[in-house]
Automatic annotation (TrEMBL):
Transmembrane segments: none annotated. Residues 153-351 form the Peptidase M24 domain. Belongs to the peptidase M24A family. Methionine aminopeptidase eukaryotic type 2 subfamily. Substrate binds at residues 215, 323. It catalyses: Release of N-terminal amino acids, preferentially methionine, from peptides and arylamides. Its EC number is 3.4.11.18. Cotranslationally removes the N-terminal methionine from nascent proteins. The N-terminal methionine is often cleaved when the second residue in the primary sequence is small and uncharged (Met-Ala-, Cys, Gly, Pro, Ser, Thr, or Val). A divalent metal cation 1 binds at residues 235, 246, 443. This is Methionine aminopeptidase 2. The lineage of its organism: Eukaryota, Metazoa, Ecdysozoa, Arthropoda, Hexapoda. Residues 12-28 have a biased composition (Acidic residues). The gene is 109545534. The keyword Protease applies.
Length: 462
């Protein structure tokens, strides 16, 4: 989920400034299908039609007594065959539709999904150790042991890439924010081949606008409309077996915000380059802040220095746990904790033309079950029922009120408040800087592999 908010001391004085695929290749088809195809060649055309099922082995149909019915069956079979081939390249490989609707697993039938951008680790302490990771046989062996996990994350990343590419081309001023979120989520669910807690969306779609930096998604009935002059942060996640891709970008229509977007993208890429095994988290934050605050932007005749939002952070990720314990600051200072081998991180940065500090504001929409919550007895039957819905549909992944509606929950406001009061569920209100300012965000998920650093969510867009 978007950012991890940290508490910072309040300064004494601050200014307020304003479908199943038919088997075509006999060589790779099951033995039963091969035999049936041979039988089909021997059949005389007048002895009856051979009807193919979508997934089951082929069986011979009884001779048709009515010639018209036989012709209709053949026409239907021919039409179905054309429909199935519609999204195929030569050679029988499926291609993505527009808008995207084909599951990623069907696009890569061999089960090998695209690898993200590979970077070498920065030289820390022992230069030889960092340089030798690419060539070390021991590290290569450790890398291979984790290949199944890496492949799951790459599948989630490819679903994320194709979904955001569609949204970037589709989104237009004048659309309702709830319409944008539903289009994105419906597309992502198709591409990830949603299956309960095994595969699906990792957290609600953040579509925070302007001074709101993170954790805003519309609740049911929200009529907010995206405007031409808005700066919107699109932050959403996908997962396979709890392996989460947390990735975000900033979208604008007015080119006057280009410098803000450029600053935050550059800062995020700086943080990614600085990250690595044995690197102290505070060192990453210092490099991010230096790059971020080297940028300025002119808006409406006034010049603003772009500031890192100092109480928002990147974070480590573990299975079914979006905030896994370690924080990656985007300003200097912070903990000297080091990154470790085989850890997953969301490297994200936020830039602002305001104070560079966010606070809770607006109606809450994001919620998440506390990962470490002990057993807590519940007296309200409605609270028990709602907790059962949360456990079944989301587990410890984040959710929103729209998703509770989708899961069939009704009249849950009091029950949700009860769960939050007992700290079984945590609420995550929208995080906002001062009104009138603009904020931007970019984020990628990286894997600290034994041999190299993989920016698994990297695409040709950012």
């Amino acid at each position: 989920m978007a950012a991890l908010k940290t508490q910072i001391p309040e300064p004494e004085h601050e200014e307020e400034n304003g479908n199943g695929v038919e088997i075509e290749d006999v060589e790779t088809a099951p033995e039963s299908v091969k035999k049936n195809k041979k039988k089909k060649k021997k059949k005389a055309s007048g002895n009856g039609a051979l009807i193919q099922g979508d997934a089951a082995p082929q069986v011979e149909a009884r001779p048709q007594e009515n010639g018209a019915k036989e012709a209709t069956a053949e026409d239907n079979a021919e039409g179905e065959k054309k429909k199935k081939k519609r999204n195929r390249k030569k050679g029988g490989k499926l291609t993505q539709t527009n808008p995207p609707s084909v599951a990623i697993v069907d696009l890569f039938p061999d089960g090998a999904f695209p690898i993200g951008e590979i970077q070498e680790y920065p030289l820390v302490n022992d230069d030889r150790t960092a340089k030798d990771r690419f060539s070390s046989e021991e590290k290569k062996a450790l890398d291979r042991m984790q290949n199944d996990i890496y492949n799951e994350v790459r599948l989630a990343a490819e679903a994320h890439r194709q979904t955001r590419k569609h949204i970037q081309n589709w989104i237009k001023p004048g659309m309702k924010m709830i319409e944008i979120c539903e289009e994105l989520e419906n597309t992502a669910r198709k591409l990830i081949a949603e299956e309960g807690l095994k595969a699906g969306l990792a957290f609600p779609t953040g579509c925070s606008r302007n001074h709101c930096a993170a954790h805003y998604t519309p609740n049911a009935g929200d009529e907010t409309v995206l405007e031409y002059d808005d700066v919107v942060k699109i932050d959403f996640g996908t997962h396979i077996n709890g392996r989460i891709i947390d990735c975000a970008f900033t979208h604008t229509f007015n080119p006057k915000y280009d410098k803000l977007v450029e600053a935050v993208r550059d800062a995020t890429n700086t943080g990614i380059r600085a990250a690595g095994i044995d690197v102290q988290l505070c060192e990453i934050g210092a490099q991010i802040q230096e790059v971020m605050e080297s940028y300025e932007i002119d808006l409406d005749g006034k010049t603003y220095q772009i500031k890192s939002i100092r109480n928002l952070n990147g974070h480590s990720i573990s299975p079914y746990r979006i905030h896994a314990g370690k924080t990656v600051p985007i300003v200097k200072g912070g903990e000297a904790t080091v990154m470790e081998e085989n850890e997953f991180y969301a490297i994200e940065t936020f830039g602002s033309t305001g104070k560079g500090v966010v606070h809770d504001d607006m109606d809450c929409s994001h919620y998440m079950k506390n990962f470490d919550v002990p057993y807590v007895p519940l007296r309200l039957q409605s609270s028990k029922a709602l907790l059962n819905i949360i456990n079944k549909n989301f587990g410890t992944l984040a959710f929103c009120k729209r998703w509770l509606d989708r899961a069939g929950a009704t009249k849950y406001q009091m029950a949700l408040k009860d769960l939050c009061d007992k700290r079984i569920v945590d609420d995550y209100p929208p995080l906002c800087d001062i009104k009138g300012c603009y904020t931007a965000q970019f984020e990628h998920t990286i894997i600290l592999r034994p041999t190299c650093k993989e920016i698994v969510s990297r695409g040709d867009d950012y």
